[in-house]
Structure formats: C-alpha cells, structure tokens
Amino acid sequence: MWTASILVLRADHEQRSGITSQQYGLAAGIFFIGYFLFEVPSNLMLHKVGARVWIARILLSWGLVATLTGLVQSVHQLYIARILLGVTEAGYFPGIVLYLTYWFPQRHQARTLGLF
Predict the structure, then answer these.
(1) In the list 16, 57, 83, 102, which could disulfide-bond 34, CB 3.0-4.6 Å?
(2) H, E, C per residue of 37-85
C-alpha cells in the first residue's frame, strides 16, 4: 500500500519540484526508521490500552499524516513525513493479529491470519 502511494507522489513531485530518484528512494526507505523504532513501544501500548482503541489510534493518526504528506514542499519535509508515517503505522500488524485472535478460535486463527 505505501509503495503505491509513494510512487504516485513521486510522479507528481518529480515534475513539480525536481526531487531526484535517489531522494525518492531514500524517502521510501526512511519510512522503516520510524516503524522500527516505535514497533515495540506501540505493542506495549497495544497491550496496555487494548487492540480496539490502539488500532483506531493507529488508523486515525496514519490517515492524518498520510493526508499531510500531500502538502510537503521540500525533500526534507518529505523525509520527515515518511518517518512520521512509519511512527504512526508501527504496531498495526501486531494489533490486527491480536484483534483477530479475539474473534476466531485457535483452530481457525492460522487460516484467518493467512487470509489477512
């Protein structure tokens, strides 16, 4: 999902702002810095406040940052937006996994997670 959005952003911004392919490559990869640094803290908060509340927080903050990414004016702002996007998305997959375990019995969980 994120790869498609960064490619659309790349095509648009490359024409308007002159950001190079290397800068876009860095922007695509820099996402994982925020994701990596906040994965464990996000999982701890997931356990503390519950999957339903934490997934809602992730989706709302991710949507806000993704929307604001469209307003970037420079490559440095793009880098910051991508790091923040990684921070806000951290914990989403573990949260969904935990939430699905609430709904499905253990014998169906592997199939359910495989379909997710």
Answers:
(1) 83
(2) HHHHHHHHHHHHHCHHHHHHHHHHHHHHHHHHHCCCCCHHHHHHHHHHH
Cα separation, 100 vs 105, in Å, equals 9
Supply the pLDDT for residue 96: 83
Helix axes 75-89, 21-49, angle to 10 degrees: 30
Q: How far apart are CA 12 and CA 67, in angstroms?
A: 15
Contact 86, 35 (CB under 8 A): yes
pTM score, whole prediction: 0.76
Tokens 């939430």 sit on residue: 99
Number of domains in the chain: 1
Neighbours of 103 (CB within 10 A): 9
